[in-house]
Amino acid sequence: MTTKLLNILTGVNRAAAPSSGGMILVNDLYGAMPETRTAFLGREPVDQIWKAAFDQLITLSTAKRPQGPAFNLYVDELTREVGALVEKIQPDAIHAQYPGFALSLAFTRTAGSIPIIAIAHGPDVMAAERSASEREGLNEVAAASAAIVAPTSALADRIDHLTGRRFTDRLTVIPWGIPLSDTRVRDQPPTGTGPLSLVHAGRLDDNKSTITAVESLALTDQPHRLTVIGEGILRKHLEQRAIELGLWDRVHFYPFLPRTELWRRLPDFDAWVFTTKGLEAFGLVLIEAQAHGLPVFYSDLPGVRETLGSAGVPYTPGDPNSLAVALDEMGRDFHRRKALAKAALHNARRYDITTTGRLLRELTLRVAS
Q1: How far is it, in rounded angstroms, from Cα 167 to Cα 347?
Q2: Residue 341 lies in a domain
Q3: Same domain, yes or no: 16 and 135
């Protein structure tokens, strides 16, 4: 018996490179999806190593424009370009990443009888919650889709609310994943109690709330140390705040690291600190940390709570004092720290990218039939 080869058209309307968690996920996902041929639409510049996951990588030429007076004209131009590609490629199914954004709208308006699966990532849902025009776009894509995928039930419920609960039966939860085979844990587990060596990585913006981690160290009884890895508009402010709080020797900042380098360094730390205070679709970085044996302190958000379950330490989002108490408690309790490291590894095993790829392929086969 031969397995049906699926031809999928998808894309993300940004540089075809590992520039964010969503882009890294997409690359991992289609590289791990069995028995598929994937054509990916992206933009220059193209990372030549990154594009290996796709059978075909096509760069879009329509000049990109943000939401505003010229946005509708831009979507019209993009739709004409995408329409020609859909006609040429004739895929079995279209995966519309970030439903409501320009490229997913172009897919929706050119698909014809080709089934669409909308795949939500989080920023698209946040945009729809802030803006009526973005919400209108999300609803247009949802209405045209045979299925709508979200990585957690918490995000699925928010989409359900934004679409007036008209498409509840189309919503499917497929958790994200990472290539677990590439991860490793430290050779010798930590022993004893005392200050923790903490790591935080990601964009340095208001929603990621890295300031919560920095300010918490000024409130702890123990001199925990924090390494912040990443770039963003708040980098200088965070550095200045650390100096103001007298933490210049306990908080260290490093630029963005490629995932291979970040993963190589993770086993050197005692725990991961996750500080996002608003919507988080899934929290792939949490699974990355856990897969390397790190206990995770996390802001207690619905989607994150769903991803981690009891395999993490929650604290009140945006509250440095709540985080400080949690840090000190673990610093004093080695047995809890050891148990959480074990629970982290166990939880991470639920989120292999091969499982994500298999589930999405099975869903695509169902809608394509």
Answers
A1: 31
A2: yes
A3: yes
> In this structure, is the dihedral angle defined by the CA atoms of residues 334, 336, 339 and 340, taken in order, positive or negative?
negative
Cα 293 to chain centroid, rounded: 20
pTM higher than 0.85, yes or no? Answer: yes
Structure tokens at 75: 């979507």
Q: Is 5 exposed, middle or buried (0-12, 13-18, 19+ CB in 10 A)?
A: exposed
Mean pLDDT value across the chain: 93
Is residue 195 domain-resident? yes
CATH number at residue 304: 3.40.50.2000
pLDDT of the residue at 1: 44
Q: Which is nearest to 289 in space by CA: 184, 175, 150? A: 184
Rounded Cα distance, 171 and 363, in Å: 11
Residue 4: the pLDDT is 77
Letter for the amino acid at 354? T
Is the CB of residue 11 less than 8 Å from the CB of residue 96? no
Query: So what's the pLDDT on residue 3?
Result: 66
